[in-house]
Write a structure and sequence with these properties.
The protein has about 350 residues and is an alpha/beta fold. It contains nine helices and 14 strands. The structure holds 4'-deoxy-4'-aminopyridoxal-5'-phosphate.
Length: about 350
């Protein structure tokens, strides 16, 4: 068996240990005589799986009792609509535009009310996080929305915006569980799991209880009303059972690794190896303002499209796959999520060094 080093932005690398455990349990989950794929979501066995997953996530993030944890479907993209549907009482919200995913959420919100651009880093191809210390937030805004880690551009908020007392809603899809976070600073934190947590098909939303009400926009589908999901403990309809089961295993893996502080240390070590190399290389350059660099997604370029293509091809042949940058920006991007081992990054840098020598 030859596993590659997978630098995909998502779906992404998962801990090998988790995959092996899932393989072992494939035909018979803990003596139930069934695969988790085959069992009823209303069964006792499955109830224990989803409850334990929630408990482990609560432990990892220290989620207070007044926040609900929901396991939802539809991807982060569907949640772009759920946010205004469930929160836009005044039909007005502020958005900070730091990349494609914030832009898409912003465009979605405009369908339902007045979405106002509070700040943007579009002027420099989203290569930095704008100053968010004094934003033009007005009293009638229902919330302020951010995309906390910008998967495509490789930026991350190091401090949260000053929301002037307004509710903060954050898309953490590509930095979920990569480091500790204080949930109480947010009204809503959510993310697709297909980067740091599990197989695509699940969105985890952590929502302050008082924001889950029947007072939603007219026309909100039953499934997209948070109250429906909350009242039914994420089991209003058939959830993506197997995917949630894998998420649960990843939570346990993170706990075993020492929790989120240990994860942060591990991720900082990996990112430093790559960024240090980019800073010293004469051929490869990072594209992000240093203080805004993401620990998870590291975009870089050479000064020639031809060389970029040659690098991506030869890297893949050497077992470093999915290094092509997002189709909208080109260049390269190494996504180095929690499950990417440190040797993956060390070996990639070794390969880049050799490539630079050969092609100088
Ligand atoms: N937000 C961020 C930060 C993303 O990286 C992505 C892409 N995976 C999305 C939202 C959209 O996610 P999905 O494909 O689950 O709709």
């Amino acid at each position: 068996m030859a596993r590659v080093y997978n630098f995909s932005a998502g779906p992404a690398v998962l801990p090998e240990e988790v995959l092996k455990e899932a393989a072992d349990e494939m035909l018979d989950y803990k003596g139930s005589g069934q695969s988790v794929m085959e069992m009823s979501h209303r069964s006792k066995v499955y109830d224990a799986i989803i409850k334990e997953a929630e408990k482990d996530l609560r432990d990892l993030l220290n989620i207070p009792d007044n926040y609900k944890v929901l396991f939802l479907q539809g991807g982060a993209s569907q949640f772009f609509a759920e946010v205004p549907m469930n929160l836009m009482k005044n039909k007005k919200a502020g958005y900070i535009i730091t990349g494609q995913w914030a832009k898409k959420a912003f465009a979605e919100a405009k369908i339902y009310g007045e979405a106002v651009e509070l700040a943007s880093s579009a002027d420099k191809t989203f290569s930095y996080i704008p100053d968010c210390s004094d934003l033009p937030i007005t009293d009638d805004m229902d919330y302020v929305y951010i995309c906390e880690n910008n998967t495509i551009y490789g930026t991350k908020y190091k401090t949260l915006p000053n929301t002037k007392g307004k509710l903060l809603v954050s898309d953490v899809s590509s930095c979920f569980l990569s480091e500790p976070m204080d949930v109480t600073k947010y009204g809503v934190v959510y993310g697709g799991v297909q980067k740091n947590i599990g197989p695509a098909g699940v969105v985890i939303a952590i929502i302050r209880e008082d924001l889950i009400t029947d007072d939603v926009l007219t026309g909100t589908p039953t499934m997209l009303k948070w109250k429906t999901q909350s009242d039914n403990d994420s089991l209003y309809n058939t959830p993506p059972c197997y995917n949630i089961y894998i998420c649960g295993k990843v939570f346990k893996w993170i706990k075993k690794m020492g929790g989120l502080s240990a994860m942060k240390e591990h991720n900082e070590k990996k990112a430093k190896i790559l960024y240090d190399f980019l800073d010293e290389s004469k051929m490869f350059k990072g594209t992000v303002r240093k203080e805004d660099r993401s620990l998870m997604n590291v975009p870089f370029v050479t000064d020639s499209e031809e060389l970029n293509a040659k690098f991506i091809k030869e890297a893949a042949e050497a077992g470093f796959v999915n290094l092509k940058g997002h189709r909208t920006v080109g260049g390269m991007r190494a996504s180095i999520y929690n499950a990417m081992p440190i040797e993956g990054v060390e070996k990639l840098v070794e390969f880049m060094r050799e490539f630079e020598k050969k092609n100088a």
